Amino acid sequence: MEFRQLRYFVAIVDHGSLSRAALVLHVAQPALTQQLRQLEEELGAQLLHRSAHGVVSTDAGKIFYEHAQAILKQVADARSAVVQSTTRPSGSVSLGLPHSISGALALPILSAARERYPEITLQLTEEITGSLAEQLKSGRLNLAVLFDDVPLGHFTGTPLVEEDLMFICRAGSAFAPAGPGVRLGDALGSTLILPARQHGVRPLVEQAAASAGLVLGAVLEINSLAILRSALLADLGATLLPVAPLLADIERGAMAAWPVVDPAVTRQVTLCASRNIPLTNAAAAIGKLVREVSEDLCARGAWPGARLRE
């Protein structure tokens, strides 16, 4: 198997046809077809379905595509690490952020990176934490912000913040509590709108309920943050989430948030990197920047419900 075959295969999948990939790669289409055929013969599997409208990956092709992408990225990172300066890091860095935290971190990190490191191309990926952990292990991400709902033993970690989950509903809702806080048992007895179990918040809520000897009541499962927000505004229920993803609605008075007590529910937020794949200078610089941005947001009170971890 040759490195160029990986590059050719990824290009074919990305562009959806052999002819478009051949134009981008500046390779004659018959030569590209031959390299693809050799790759399939070596692997003993068909990687693509071909038709008059283009190509589509087979199941084997989808698996191979992920590995090929990771290998190409690691080679690019190795080249970048060799040539870049430690004082002026450059190159591409991929950072993964969970859906429920990107509202707090994404724009501040992008702004700080553009100002501090103009020669670094920062690529942000927004995914559920389980998917981010898998991409980090395979090398498709350089860094990822993860929670304590996934095993972190495969990674090195830099503590960022401890974040409170709050009871949030539409302003004036029938679900709104009478007091300044909400006991966990009362919150769990409400109609809750929560993500499914593969999302970081849901297992945290279930674990907190089990630890307190409580039972989670009726749940509307919505994995899209945008749809969950719409359901809250329609007063279909309340939610247990950090404030950050719904802060704009809370600040304009469309929603309200109450602290959860007896017991409180918190999550640990950690910046992670692979133990097995060394960071480039650029990735290390972005990692340090993420910590600095978190410190600044907490110091200014711009990340409500979050406290810096030492």
TrEMBL record:
Q: Which SUPFAM superfamilies match?
A: Periplasmic binding protein-like II, Winged helix' DNA-binding domain
Entries under Gene3D superfamilies matching the protein: 3.40.190.290, Winged helix-like DNA-binding domain superfamily/Winged helix DNA-binding domain (1.10.10.10)
Q: Where is the HTH lysR-type domain?
A: 1-58
Matching Pfam families, A to Z?
HTH_1 (PF00126), LysR_substrate (PF03466)
Q: Which residues form the signal peptide?
A: none
What the entry lists under InterPro entries is as follows: LysR_HTH_N, LysR_subst-bd, WH-like_DNA-bd_sf, WH_DNA-bd_sf
What's in the keyword line of the UniProt record? Activator, DNA-binding, Transcription, Transcription regulation
Give the superkingdom in one word: Bacteria
Family label: Belongs to the LysR transcriptional regulatory family.
By what name is this protein known? LysR substrate-binding domain-containing protein
Q: Whose protein is this, by species?
A: Massilia agri
